[in-house]
Amino acid sequence: MPVPSTLSGTYCTIYRSASTLPSEFWEAARTNPAHFNTILPTAQKCRDHECPGYTSAPGHVWILVWTCSPRQQLELVLSCTSTEMGTYPIFIASTVPTPRLTQHFVSSRIPILASTLHQEIPKMRVYSVFGPDAIVNCFAPIWSSLTGISPYREPYYAAKLSVCTSRTISNRSASIIPGLQMDLRLAVTADLQGVAELCYGFASESAPFTLTREGALKEASYLIQNKQVWVHGIRQEGTNGPSEIASIVACTRNAEQCATITKVYTNPRWRRRGCAERLVRRVTKLLLSSRYEKVALYVAHTNPAAAKVYHRVGFAGLGDDSMDGKNCEHWSEIGFDRKVVDLGHW
C-alpha cells in the first residue's frame, strides 16, 4: 500500500510493485518518455511480469512526490530497481519542465524524498543517483547528511539528454571505405565473443562500472538473447570467413513510443572510419521505422567527438549553435563513497 508522508502540502507515496503505481505516473511517463527513459521501461517490464497481489523483485521501490496546493499534482518520481546485470542507480525524474526546476522548487521537495528513501532501503544500496542536474545536486548533500556517506566531488557522469525523431534524422548515405566490406545488422549468437569484447572495452572506459571478462560475456549474451544489440562487421574485400566486429550499439531501455540507445562503442583499431556514425544512423532509422516515435541517448559533456557524431545523425541539441543546446536536458550521476556502498552496474 502507498505510504503517505506529509510536510507543508508535499507528501510521498511508496510503491513496491509496479502494478500498484497510479495512473498519474503512467500518464506523466508516457507524455515525456525520453525524460522518463531510466524509469518507465523497467516499470513496464515489472508490471508485465506481475500477477495480482504479486510484489516486484525484492528491493524494487518507487517513491512519488506530490503537492496538494491548489490541487494534488505528481511532481517527482524516484525509482530503486535492478536488472539482470545488477542494481541500478537511484533514478529521479520530474513531471515539471526542466526550466522550472529552480532552487526553491527542489529544496522544498528533495528533503522529504531523501528522507522517505532513507526509511525504506539500506543506505548502502544508494551507490549513486542519476537525474536532472538541479535535482541530483540538491539530493546528494541531503542524502549525505542523512547517512553520513560522502558524495564524490566530481560526478561519475555528466551529460546531455538528446532525442532524434523522423523529422530530425539525417538521411545522408552511409560512407564507403574502399577495400573494406561492411555488414550492419542485429547481433546473433555467433557474435557472442566479439560483442563481449566490446562490452568489456566499453566498461573499461566507464569507471567505476567496469566488468570482468566473465561479466562482459554475461552482458553480451543477455543483449544478444533479447535482440538489444547491433553490430558493425568489417573485413577486407576478397577475404573469407566472418567479419570483425568494429562497433556495437545497444538499445536496452525501450518503452512504447521511445527507445533509448544505452551503449555505443567502437574497437580502437577501427576508430576514425565512421563506424559508430554509420551504425547509430542505421539503428536509429530501424527503430523509428518500427513502433518508436523517438530515440533518446545521453552524450557526455567530455565527449565532443561523440556529440558531433550524434548531431550528424540527427539528435537534437548537440550542434555548435548555442540555441541548439537549449533543446537538451542536462543530467548528472553523482556517486557515493565506494568504501561504504554496494556498487551496482548499469
Describe this structure in words.
- With 346 residues, the protein is α+β, with helices and mostly antiparallel strands.
- The protein is 30% helix and 27% strand.
- The strands form 2 sheets. A 13-stranded mixed β-sheet has the order 1-2-3-4-7-8-15-9-14-13-12-11-10, with helices on both faces. A two-stranded antiparallel ribbon has the order 5-6.
Q: Can you tell me the residue ranges where pLDDT is under 50 for at least 5 consecutive residues?
A: 1-7
C-alpha-based Rg, rounded: 21 Å
Spatially, the strands of the biggest sheet line up as: 1-2-3-4-7-8-15-9-14-13-12-11-10
- What is the subunit arrangement here? single chain
Task: State the main characteristics.
two-stranded antiparallel ribbon
Sum this structure up briefly.
This protein is α+β, with helices and mostly antiparallel strands and 346 residues long. The chain has 10 helices and 15 strands.
Topology diagram in text:
Layout: E1 5-7, E2 10-15, H1 23-31, H2 40-49, E3 61-67, E4 73-80, E5 82-83, E6 86-87, E7 90-94, H3 103-107, H4 110-120, E8 128-132, H5 133-147, E9 157-165, E10 180-186, H6 192-204, H7 213-225, E11 229-236, E12 244-251, E13 258-266, H8 275-289, E14 294-300, H9 304-313, H10 322-325, E15 329-335
Parallel strand pairs: 7-8, 13-14
Antiparallel strand pairs: 1-2, 2-3, 3-4, 4-7, 5-6, 8-15, 9-14, 9-15, 10-11, 11-12, 12-13
Helix pairs in contact: 4-5, 6-7, 8-9
